[in-house]
Amino acid sequence: MAVGEQEKRERAVTDAAVASFDETKDERLREIVQSLTRHLHAFARDVRLTQEEWEAGIGFLTRVGHITDDKRQEFILLSDVLGLSMLTVGINAPAEPRATESTVFGPFFVEGAPEVALGGDISRGAKGMPCWVTGTIRDTAGNPVADARIEVWEADEDGFYDVQYDGDRSAGRGRLRSDGDGGYRFWSVRPAAYPIPTDGPVSELMAATDRSVMRPAHVHFKVDAPGHRTLITHIFAAGDPYLDSDAVFGVKESLIVEFAEHRPGTAPDGRVLDTAWSSVEFDIVLEPLS
Ligand code: BEZ
Ligand code: FE
């Protein structure tokens, strides 16, 4: 068959599929599904997708769905390793350059984590070197943001979140409020580098494509305050060997911070430690909603 005929036949399928959404009343939905259809068809044409490859793709997505439940979100993980999550973060980044940068949300946030008083310990049984975390929350004009809701979560020294262990134990996560000067402080553990979950279809994809599954050591933050844009971010530990090869592309230079290490002794809040401990400071700038 002439090349022109083949091209015409393929184009006709794409045109029909795109046109089938023409009557969608919701304009934004129409824009999204028509663009998605065009790009999916262009992808299939680009790689000359075989029937077997199409079936393998459907099988893969089916397994992603089957392993997903209310504690395990393999679709988010897939979006993360494809860079789609970070692209979406980038597209929606605040226009304001003074605001703290955002990064990927990840699959391990849990609604309703325990409330912890300022200066309290969010580790609650998570293993690791004690770590004193402090900072202030301000707006882009430099005003302190009092009473901001701060949610933090992190993996233990073995690289696992509480939800990855059997049982319902909550550890390494908590919710705090900033004080009247925008200050916050809590004890936790020094974070460790860890692999993204390695027991599902996404990790099979990583293995098949010879990619590293490691994430550099980090602590997650979600900060909400009325009148301000919600911030979802991490702090990353300076010097971590995986900063340049994060499996989910989440690292930003401005989010890399130094975790100091201290000999046993008295911490700034008066706590006496008989083991080495760590400390880190992270000041947060929220963008006011216009
Ligand atoms: C996380 O940092 O918790 C995470 C983010 C993306 C994929 C897997 C884990
Ligand atoms: Fe994480």
TrEMBL record:
The keyword Oxidoreductase applies. Residues 133-161 form the Intradiol ring-cleavage dioxygenases domain. It comes from the Bacteria. Pfam families: Dioxygenase_C, Dioxygenase_N. The keyword Iron applies. CDD domains: 1_2-HQD (cd03461). InterPro entries: 1_2-HQD/HQD (IPR039390), Catechol_dOase_N (IPR007535), Intradiol_dOase_C (IPR000627), Intradiol_dOase_core (IPR015889), Intradiol_RC_Dioxygenase (IPR050770). Signal peptide: none annotated. Keywords: Dioxygenase, Iron, Metal-binding, Oxidoreductase. Its cofactor is Fe(3+). GO terms for molecular function: dioxygenase activity. Belongs to the intradiol ring-cleavage dioxygenase family. This is Intradiol ring-cleavage dioxygenase.
